[in-house]
Amino acid sequence: MSIIKSAFRVLRFGSAKNQLFSLESKTCRAFSVCNKLRQDASDANASKINFYVDENKEKGYAILKLNKGPVNSLNLEFLTELNIQLEKFEESKEIKGVILTSSIPNIFSAGLDIMEMYQIKQDRGSQFWTALQETWIKLYGSNKIYIAAINGHSPAGGCLLSISCDYRIMSKGPYKIGLNETLLGIKAPFWFRDTMINTIGYRETEKALQLGKLYSSEEALAVNLVDELADSKDLITKAEEQMSKWCAIPTVARELTKSSMRRDTLSKLIAQREADTQSFIEFTQRDSIQKSLRMYLESLKKPKKSSA
Ligand SMILES: CCCCCC/C=C/CC(=O)SCCNC(=O)CCNC(=O)[C@H](O)C(C)(C)COP(=O)(O)OP(=O)(O)OC[C@H]1O[C@@H](n2cnc3c(N)ncnc32)[C@H](O)[C@@H]1OP(=O)(O)O
Questions:
Q1: Is the ipTM here above 0.90?
Q2: What residues are in contact with ligand 1 under a 6 Å CB criterion?
């Protein structure tokens, strides 16, 4: 939204302005549908702490630590809470940037909660998908600086969260990151795909998405899926060093540059959010998809084989 707003300020006249205005108002309508949901989510989760926020107003940035055990899987309530927090950051005058990480050792995020796609009612499915779209629009379209400190596994939706940031540092270790949707029998949505293309390029994305490739941290560095590796103990320090560097850049120039790079990709989804939600519902209701999801869920729940 903020990027759309910045773009709106720059493109004062002509059809581009009208187009952005229409995109913005569609987005606002979709956001207002979520307002009740947000209230429900904050009531239901009043006693749980699904993330921690550590704001350092003096330095001008915050650290947001995902904390929804066991694996930070993204369900409707969690996404709704996150969206509220992202909005708070966006509105903050003191916060220039956010380091996005996880408090769960070895796990950044396991991606979408598969239970939100398996045997769900249409209403819930559409609320879930709308909330996910909103998270991506807020993160990818943010005027703030987002640095992902990827402290562990980051498949599928977890990878999307990190590639929606401006810079990624990943812990060295036996961790995997990538868009592995085909391994679940599903196709990555076009906006996941486009964010990946913008990060690692067309050809690498074409291979990665078809193969459902999960990259090791070294492989991820080699294809620019992440920008830097760090020992786990140094991850946050390195992210803070990087954040100081980004914060030192003149704000308006950086924001306008970011928005000019991301506007087209964002506009594509903003222009067709409802159709995209319908397509998610239609796709996930297919018997073949439900069967694939069931098998994938079973494989996750199988007792792990001993490596000895
Ligand atoms: C047209 C539109 C189509 C729809 C497109 C939607 C796109 C989808 C994007 C997605 O994000 S789908 C989710 C993809 N995620 C994964 O494939 C990751 C699966 N998880 C793992 O590989 C591992 O859990 C892990 C992240 C590597 C962590 O391993 P670890 O050994 O530490 O933990 P586990 O024992 O495997 O898991 C603990 C516990 O959590 C459950 N779980 C794991 N991931 C998910 C998940 N994504 N959703 C729901 N539940 C998950 C796992 O089953 C275990 O449960 P219990 O056995 O303890 O009950």
A1: yes
A2: 70-71, 73, 107, 110-115, 153, 155-157, 180-181, 184, 186-187, 189, 279-280, 283, 300-301
